[in-house]
Amino acid sequence: MTHVLIVEDEPALLRRFTDAVLAEPGFALCGAVSTVAAARALLDATPVDVVLIDLGLPDGHGSQVIRHAVARYPQCDVIVVTMFGDDANVTDCIAAGATGYLLKDALPQQLVAAIQEVREGGSPISPAIARRILQRIRTEGAPAETVAPAEALAPARPAAAVPPPSSLLSERETEILRLTSKGLSFKEVGEVLGISGHTVKTHIKRIYQKLAVHSRGEAVYEAGQLGLL
């Protein structure tokens, strides 16, 4: 029997993950909590085999729980399930002891398969994250480019005027992006904010245009880099 702890602060996703674990005969749900403090308390009281964890929690970062879980139970596997696929978060979580890293577009059956995989010694990673890691390795391993003398002596071009980050997105757009970063669907975001899914899609299109991105993951990453989330 694989004992699983879920740490996720968005109620809809917490229910989704919980249902996926409860539906699997070989899994036992140890707890479903939404804060760093609650996760630590449960880990101190109950042996856990696998932790499914989000990163953006109300009272801290998911990496704090990862470190606590691994220190408490060295054989415990931790799978990050998040919308944050940037280098900083991936590196921090892997260094903390995470054995898997999935983006929140993963389906329930993929979560079940990921839990089974880590217990068999594997490291489930979303393709987009694996590709980012490979690109980083290639970049860090590539030789420095030689700068031609003319380029080295050429005067620097004046930087284009960039609007301050806080003015890029409206308050409503920021709230919508924050909710989508939790993995909620457009319909679920609309239900939370009391607007239609169609209106959410319209806001999302504007967000993509303002941030010059083409996907939800890219929007969350870019907004995080700009300090908007």
Strands ordered across the widest β-sheet: 2-1-3-6-7
Helical content stands at 40-55%
> What CATH architecture label of the largest domain applies?
3-Layer(aba) Sandwich
Low-confidence segments, ≥5 residues, pLDDT <50?
Answer: 146-163
CATH superfamily label of the largest domain? Response regulator
Q: From the alpha-carbon coordinates, what is the Rg to the nearest angstrom? A: 20 Å
* C-alpha geometry: globular
The largest sheet is: 5 strands, parallel
Total helical segments: 11
Q: State the total count of DSSP E strands.
A: 7
Average pLDDT metric? 82
Query: Element order, helices and strands?
Result: EHEHEEEHEHEHHHHHHH
CATH class bucket of the largest domain? Alpha Beta
Class of secondary structure makeup = alpha/beta
What is the domain tally? 2
- CATH T-level topology of the largest domain: Rossmann fold
Task: Give the CA-CA distance, first to last residue.
Answer: 38 Å
Modified residues (4-aspartylphosphate): 54
InterPro entries: CheY-like_superfamily, NreC/VraR/RcsB-like_REC, Sig_transdc_resp-reg_C-effctor, Sig_transdc_resp-reg_receiver, Tscrpt_reg_LuxR_C, WalR-like
Domain HTH luxR-type: 162-227
Organism: Xenophilus arseniciresistens
Description:
By secondary structure, this protein is an alpha/beta fold. The protein folds into 2 domains: 132 residues, Rossmann fold (3-Layer(aba) Sandwich); 61 residues, Orthogonal Bundle (Arc Repressor Mutant, subunit A), CATH 1.10.10.10. Helix content is 52%, strand content 14%. The protein is built from 11 helices and 7 strands. The strands form 2 sheets. The chain has a 5-stranded parallel β-sheet with strand order 2-1-3-6-7, with helices on both faces. A two-stranded antiparallel sheet has the order 4-5. Helix 10 packs across helix 11. The radius of gyration is 20 Å and the shape is globular. About 8% of the residues have low confidence.
